[in-house]
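> tool_call: predict_assembly(chains=two)
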Amino acid sequence: MKKIATALSVMLIAATPFAAQATPDDDLKAFRSYFTKKFPEVPMNDFVNGVYALDASAREQWEAFEEFPSYEIAIDNGEEKFHKKFANGNGYADCFPNYKKGIKQNYPYFDSDSGKVVTMESAINKCRTDNGEKKLKWKKGAMTEISAYLASLSRGHKTNVKVPGDAKAIAAYNRGKKHFYAKRGQLNMACADCHYYYAGNKIRADILSPALGHTTGFPVYRNKWAGMGTLHRRYGGCNKQVRAKPFKAQSDEYKTLEYFHTYMSNGLEINGPSQRK
Amino acid sequence: MAKSSIKVRAKVKKGEAKVKCLISHPMETGLRKNKKTGKLIPAKFIQEVVCESGGKTVMNAQWNATISKNPFLSFAFTGAKSGDTIKVSWVDNTGKSDSTEAKLK
């Protein structure tokens, strides 16, 4: 079993564009220096604002939105839902004892017991099922409201995702990394094609956002959706746009992608929920 | 009392009050279908939004189904002082209504 695991991780590493044996830390440095060289005029902490760090006219509109953002309704609803007790008398606060201090910055993390990546959304639903409640839908609705409330309490904290030395954790990280750099769909495009190599260029009328800092703002109120959505909802949309079949929200594939993607934004401040066009 | 569906922020600058409101409302056009049952979702949209200040109507908007869900409304009026109260209210096509009061900053 161990042999298979090693063979698999060697294959995964070989499939990625960086040098073999690149540790997550090396990747992070390379990722950072690429974007700081590409956009020397953008201060590091402005990357959290996504495309608005690059596009001045879109930023003007966005700042007007942020003065009275549409996600405030979601935060209020989320607060109400978060503090409502379950039928068995427990509440979300029992699952997330540190929620007031902010917890979003620590998600997703690798759980060595189950050998899986745990996202904040999956932790919210696990809390529900442990207490005998039904799961919430992953991509929109109540889930995004609770997630928005928790994110709003985590604002200002720096993203702090850890990849422990555990072989399984590295494998999960590499799976996400592979997803990010692998071509997919009829258009044969990888996440990296748009959001790494061509970030800042135009795709039709829009400017492509850099992958660095993507994750800090989620969940987002997206004008296109006229509602809230989680990161995995956006991943699905991205995959569809390159004409690939999207994976299921909170599938292992997207969880590991979120793991890699968020790790790349380590040290950037959480500014979710936020408004996007 | 239930939470108000209207959030208001208003500021006065040189005698001109700038008011911003965010209203949570589904704004159903009546033309959308429920995907599962195939039946039309009944129309439910705001028809009138009124803002009063000191007993006088300062803004009156006639809306219809074309306005988006959870609408955002921003307007300005003159002759306001900081500390005045304004009242914003809406009525929808089903006869439901809501209102809230806010102080000008």
